[in-house]
Amino acid sequence: MASKRRHDSGGKVDIPMAPMIDIVFQLLIFFMLQLKIMAPEGNFDINMPLGQSSQQSSDAPLVPDIKVKMISDANGNLAQLKFGERNLGVGDGAFEALGAEVLKIIGTPGNPATKDIEVEIDADYELHYEYVIKAVSHCTGKIDPQTKQLVRYVEKIKFAPPRLPKNG
Amino acid sequence: MAKRRLNHTSVIEPDMTPMIDIVFQLLTFFMVVINFENTKADERVKLPKDLLAKPPEVKPAEELVLNVGFDRDLSGRKLSDEPIVFYSGDKYTINNFGPMLEQEKRLAEAKGGKGAIDDTTVILRADSEVPTGKIQELIRKCQEIGYTQFSLKAISEE
Fold first, then answer.
1. Nearest residue of A to residue B53 by CA position?
2. Prediction ipTM score
């Protein structure tokens, strides 16, 4: 076959490119339309089997669970952030203080004695979800400014039983 | 022009090679950049931003993505204060979402057998302004169906 072609004509063999170009353009258009430009998303895992938040465990842990209380105003903005009974205030400084308090309790990040410690988030019904994510984030850990790596504080996060709305 | 018509009777063929090169490069670019995993994400949900929100290293075996947000106009203003679950092209209030969760459970069990939802993680993609109580109500509904693992989504903030 190859030798026949070489003998028949000295010119180059023309492969029809049109069907391939058609398909390639269709693929290109498909992928262009499918593309959604979205920022990368991350997860915060919480483990909540039914009833866990309301019942007490029979085995007393070495370190008591951390309770974070978040009080909102009528518009859903954070009015007070409390670590146990201590008021940490509002704003970014309060969340930084929360992270520092959690670190104080666990000692050093990755400490095996405190790895089973849980943080219970007790938020008002109206509070905007973004504040809860901030609190979860600051309890979970922080980014080390030098290494840019995640330093993990607490892995177990749970919610307290839901509160009722303030306006009934 | 007239001279060319007289000299050549054959068709003039433009060189297609550079165009094909570019098209293939574009195709490769879009194929690499495209993310089919985010197809369940709803663009109407304005997720909270957080520094620690990094994509998970281990993907859950099965996941149920729930998008909770608000009806918004084009400028992004809320049309109603009632949070809505965007599910399969429809909108449900959180109170009315129970039957859909039952349906998801039946589908998961038909696919993976009884107890399949034990391995399913509920991914909550909630708008930053949704009241926390509403999210907890939704979590409670999921718990009543049998889901135990939850994951809260946030946008990675650089």
1. A42
2. 0.77
* Segment among A33-42, A88-97, B83-92 with least mean pLDDT: A33-42
Q: Which CATH architecture has domain A66-159?
A: 2-Layer Sandwich (3.30)
Tally C-beta pairs within 8 A across A and B: 160
For residue B47, the chain A residue with the least C-alpha distance is A130
Contact A40 B155 (CB under 8 A): yes
CB contact under 8 A, B30 and A48: no
Q: Which residue of A has its CA nearest to B33?
A: A35
Q: Are A44 and B154 in contact (CB under 8 A)?
A: yes
- Tell me whether residues A136 and B53 touch, CB distance under 8 A: no
The answer to whether B52 contacts chain A (CB < 8 Å) is yes
What predicted TM-score, i.e. pTM, was given to this entire model? 0.77
Query: Which pLDDT does position A2 carry in this prediction?
Result: 44
**A22 band by pLDDT with thresholds 50, 70 and 90:** very high
